[in-house]
Amino acid sequence: MNSKLNLNPQIIENARNAAASIAEDVQEFIDRHTTVSVERTIARLLGIDGVDEIERPLPNIIVENIKEGGGLSLGVAYWLGNAMLQTGEDPQTIGEKVSRGELNLTKLPIGEENRIREKIDEIAQITVNKIKENRKTRENYIKTLGEGPQPYIYVIVATGNIYEDVVQAQAAVRQGADIIAVIRTTAQSLLDYVPYGATTEGFGGTYATQENFKIMRKALDEVGEEVGRYIRLCNYCSGLCMPEIAAIGALERLDVMLNDALYGILFRDINMQRTLVDQYFSRIINGFAGVIINTGEDNYLTTADAVEEAHTVLASQFMNEQFAKKAGIREEQMGLGHAFEMAPDIENGFLYELAQAQMAREIFPKAPLKYMPPTKFMTGNIFKGHLQNAMFNLVSIWTNQGIQLLGMLTEAIHTPHMHDRALSIENAKYIFNNAKDIGEEVSFKEGGIIQTRAQEVLKNAEELLLEIEKEGLFSTIEKGKFASIKRARNGGKGLEGVVGKDKKYFNPFIEKMLNKNFYNSSGTIV
C-alpha cells in the first residue's frame, strides 16, 4: 500500500520489532505457567460439560479437585488421561463421578506417561475435528450465501433475555446488519466460572453461555438464509474465563470475539499474569476456529485524552498484533481496535480522526480493523449524536475500515430500541454508498495537518514501544502508561489461579491447533 500519509517505513519497522521483542519476553513467562481457566478450558475441550446439583460447572469441580490434591502443575490433561487409563471411563463420566465425591483424580495409581498421552490424544482429536468442521461450515456458508461488504455493519443486542435478543438480532439483520454482538451481562468478566444453560435475566447484557451461543447461532443462520448473506456472531472472550469462552465459541461456531491482551488488566483489574497466560490459549483457539478477534484499544480513550494519548492506541495495536501472531492468528483475523473519540468541539478534530484511522489502515493493511463509535462525548442530544455518528461513518468508508460498530443516536440515554438501530444502519448505508470510493479519489496535502498528525502519533508510539521493550511490559503497566491506569503485578483478581508448569505438563490442544499442516496457502483450513 502506498502511504498517503508519508509514514516513515523505518519507524514502522522499529515499532513492530520492539513490539515483537516485548511479546517474546512475555511469552517466556506464558510458556512456564498455566491457570485454572486454561485447565478448565482443556477439560471442556475434552468433553466435560454440565453442572452439579448446586449449579457448579463440572470443569470447575475437576480443576478444584486436582488443585486441592496439589497436582495442577501437571495439568488437567495428565490427570484425566490417567483416570481414563485406570477406570476405563470417558471424561464426562469421570467428571460426574468427581462431582459426586466418588473419585479423587490425584489419589489414583499413576500409569505410563505415553499411554496417558495416547488416551488424551484420541479425545482431543475428536474436538479438534469438530472445530475444523465448524470452520468449514462457515466457509461454505460464505461461499454459497455470500456476505455483506466491508466495513461490516456491526450492531449490539443486550436485553438480558437470549430469546428477546434473537428477536432484536433478526430484526437488525433484516435492516442490514452483518455482525450481531450479544453484550455480556454486567460483570460476567469477573465471574471465575461460565454460567450454564439458556438465560433470560441479565443486567446491561445477556449471560455468555454455550446454550445461549447455540440459540443465537441457529437464529442467525436462519435469518441469514432469509436475507441471502452469512451473518457473523460476536461475543466477549475476556475476563477470568477468557479461554473457556473461546472454547465454547469455537464449539458453537461464533465468528468474532472481543479478545484483547491488556483489556482485562486495565479495565477489570484482573491480575496481569493471569490475563497474559489466558489470552495466549484463548487466541490459539480463536485462531484455529477462524474467529476474527477484536482488540480493545478504543477503551483507552474512555479514560485518557484521545488527542494526547493516541500513540498508546497505536502502541497497543502493535503489541496485540505480535501477541496474536504468537498464537497463530493470521493478519486477516486481527480486528485491531481504535475509536472516534475526540471531543467534538476540537478545531479540526475530524482531520485528526481521519489521520488516526488512515494511519491504522496503512500500518495494518490486511487487518479487518474494528472502528468504534463516539461514546465519551455523546450528550443525549439525539440530533447532534446522529451527526457525530455520520462523521464517524464517513471516516470509516474513507479509510477502508473492516468492522464498523455503529454508533447509536440514543447513546447516553438508554439501550437502543429496534428503531434506533434501524436509523443508525440507514445512516451508515447511506454514507457507505454515497462516499464509497472517496478514499481512492482524495489525497492529503504534503506536510498538512493530516500527514503531520499521523507522523507525530507514529513517532510517539515508536518511542513508547522502545521504552516498554527496555523496561518490560509488566513494569510499564505498573507505571500506568496505558489509559492512565496503574495495576500491580501481584495485584488484581485471579492471581491465585496462576500455576507454574511441571516438566511433565502437557496441553494437547496447543500442539494440534498450531499445526500449520491444517491450512493451505490462502489460510483456508483443509
Automatic annotation (TrEMBL):
**Which GO molecular function terms does the record list?**
catalytic activity; cobalamin binding
Q: Where is the signal peptide?
A: none
Q: Where is the D-Lysine 5,6-aminomutase alpha subunit domain?
A: 5-511
Task: List the Pfam families.
Answer: Lys-AminoMut_A
Looking up InterPro entries in the UniProt record yields: Cbl-dep_enz_cat, Lys-AminoMut_A, Lys-AminoMut_asu_sf
Top-level taxon of the source organism: Bacteria
- What protein name applies here? Beta-lysine 5,6-aminomutase alpha subunit /D-lysine 5,6-aminomutase alpha subunit
Species this chain originates from: Proteiniborus ethanoligenes
Q: What is the lineage of its organism?
A: Bacteria, Bacillati, Bacillota, Clostridia, Eubacteriales
